[in-house]
């Protein structure tokens, strides 16, 4: 069993493995009181006035208590982050890292701006960790890129992946969790999906090109996929396509 887990961990792509490791270590460290959450949460005043810039990163690593909700989010992180990195971003590690950087920036910007809006500032002031929102963003992006995959929620009902974020949002509301956390992840995910997939098809321009200095950080290897004989990878025009 331990060997199987070790093999599963080693086979994870680099970004997924790094983020999952950092999240688990940080959350366990806080649970054991080795690390204080008060040194990790997003506090704009401390970032600007006392130059505690690490808070812009560490607030994405702490997933609060190690309970069922923590296990759910670790599952989502390990599954959907891995699926994105291995499939949609296969051979494009720098682009995947840039997607996470974009999502983290959008989430941070929303919270900072929301904190200055009357009647909303009190709600946004309570959002001091954005780890759950960033995880939900990955789920949203994956669902938009794989909308026809059939899924089942706790064996109760089936639906296509396009509705996965809404199903999870409804579940969060039912168990009494804050809907803001999931909604922020959906907003960030939709912003990325629109700018990366929809807008380029509309205008021919791609605003989210990965900067060269980020590409220089990752040595992406060319991915060669052998095409088996007599296997059709894409349906001809007009043919209905479903994935199960």
Chain-wise SSE layout:
Blueprint: H1 2-10, H2 14-31, H3 44-49, H4 55-58, H5 68-88, H6 93-114, H7 121-125, H8 131-145, E1 150-153, E2 157-160, H9 164-174, H10 179-203, H11 212-215
Antiparallel strand pairs: 1-2
Helix pairs in contact: 2-5, 5-8, 6-8, 6-10, 8-10, 9-10
Membrane topology: Multi-pass membrane protein
InterPro entries: DER1 (IPR007599), Rhomboid-like_sf (IPR035952)
Transmembrane segments: 19-41, 96-117, 123-141, 148-168, 174-195
Structure, described:
Helix content is 57%, strand content 3%. The protein is mainly alpha-helical and 244 residues long. The protein has one domain: Rhomboid-like fold, CATH 1.20.1540.10. A two-stranded antiparallel sheet has the order 1-2. The longest helix is centred in the last third of the chain and has 25 residues.
Number of domains as seen in the coordinates: 1
Are there runs of 5+ residues with pLDDT below 50, and where? 222-244
Number of helices: 11
Per CATH, the class reads Mainly Alpha
What number is the mean pLDDT?
A: 84
Q: Percent helix among the residues?
A: 55-70%
Q: Assign the CATH architecture.
A: Up-down Bundle
Distance between the termini: 29 Å
Order of helices and strands: HHHHHHHHEEHHH
Structural class, by secondary structure, is: mainly alpha
**Share of residues in strands:** under 5%
Largest beta-sheet characterization: 2 strands, antiparallel
At the fourth CATH level, what is the homologous superfamily? Rhomboid-like
- Characterize the overall form: globular
């Amino acid at each position: 069993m331990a060997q199987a887990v070790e093999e599963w961990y080693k086979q994870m792509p680099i970004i997924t493995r790094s983020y999952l490791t950092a999240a688990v270590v940080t959350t366990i460290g806080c649970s054991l009181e080795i690390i204080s959450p008060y040194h990790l949460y997003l506090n704009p005043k401390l970032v600007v006035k006392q130059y505690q810039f690490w808070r812009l990163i560490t607030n994405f690593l702490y997933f609060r208590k190690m309970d069922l909700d923590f296990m759910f989010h670790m599952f989502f992180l390990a599954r959907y982050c891995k699926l994105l990195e291995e499939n949609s971003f296969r051979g494009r590690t720098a682009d995947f890292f840039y997607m996470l950087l974009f999502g983290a920036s959008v989430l941070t910007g929303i919270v900072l701006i929301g904190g200055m809006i009357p009647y909303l500032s009190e709600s946004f002031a309570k959002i001091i960790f954005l780890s759950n929102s960033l995880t939900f963003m990955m789920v949203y992006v994956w669902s938009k890129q794989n909308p026809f995959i059939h899924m089942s929620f706790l064996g109760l009902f089936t639906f296509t992946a396009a509705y996965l974020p809404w199903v999870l949002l409804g579940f969060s509301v039912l168990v009494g969790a804050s809907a803001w956390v999931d909604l922020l992840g959906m907003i960030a995910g939709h912003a990325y999906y629109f700018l990366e997939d929809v807008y380029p098809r509309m205008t021919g321009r791609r605003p989210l090109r990965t900067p060269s200095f980020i590409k220089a950080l990752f040595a992406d290897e060319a991915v060669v996929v052998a095409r088996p004989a007599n296997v059709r990878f894409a349906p001809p025009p007009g043919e209905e396509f479903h994935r199960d």
